[in-house]
Design a protein that fits this description.
SIS_dom; isomerase activity; five-stranded parallel sheet; Rossmann fold; alpha/beta; 6-phospho-3-hexuloisomerase; isomerase; SIS_dom_sf
Length: 185
């Protein structure tokens, strides 16, 4: 198959995932984002990259957002939100992070394939995204893509849709967001 053929298959898989995402769960997450003093994002590997891109867009909107583990990240307090992106919901460092955030009194949200995972059991807010786990044996969701790729792509697009929904709720435009864009590049 050609590259354009693979791309068409990927786009079709992504079209199918959009129909499987709960608007109700998304609205709960959006509401909590807008109520939070600070918003922390965490994920490992490619999911972590998607979480970082979301943190950047939240910052562009004027929200106080941080990526866990960066040197300029503040401490989490009771009125804060930790959003974890993890397909499996079992990444040990993220499980530990969720437990610590809960112990501090923060709110934990998980965006995942597996809401019943270890992090899912700790989370106050869980949002299920379709996708295949890295180990696709026994998975009910079939994809042509390797490992957790479909989840990671869906995660990026979902988080971009969340940004658009928040922009809509706040009456914000892309032009206004450019005021917070990096300008020393």
């Amino acid at each position: 198959m050609s590259v354009s053929g693979f791309l068409e298959n990927i786009l079709e898989e992504l079209r199918q995932t959009a129909d499987l995402i709960s608007d109700e769960e998304a609205e709960v997450l959006i509401g909590r984002i807008l109520e939070s003093e600070k918003i922390f994002l965490a994920g490992a590997g490619r999911s972590g990259f998607m979480a970082k891109s979301f943190a950047m867009r939240l910052m562009h909107m004027g929200l106080d957002s941080y990526v866990v583990g960066e040197t300029v990240t503040k401490g989490l307090d009771k009125e804060d939100l930790l959003i974890i992106a993890s397909g499996s919901g079992e990444t040990k460092s993220l499980v530990s992070m969720a437990a610590k955030a809960k112990a501090i009194g923060g709110t934990v949200a998980l965006v995942t394939i597996e809401p019943d995972s270890s992090i899912g059991k700790l989370a106050d807010i869980t949002l299920k995204l379709p996708g295949s786990p890295k180990d696709q044996s026994g998975s009910s969701y079939i994809t042509i893509q390797p490992m957790g790729t479909l989840f990671e792509q869906t995660l990026l697009l979902f988080l971009d849709a969340v940004i658009l929904r928040i922009m809509d709720k706040k009456g914000m435009t892309s032009n206004k967001m450019y005021g917070s864009h990096a300008n020393l590049e």
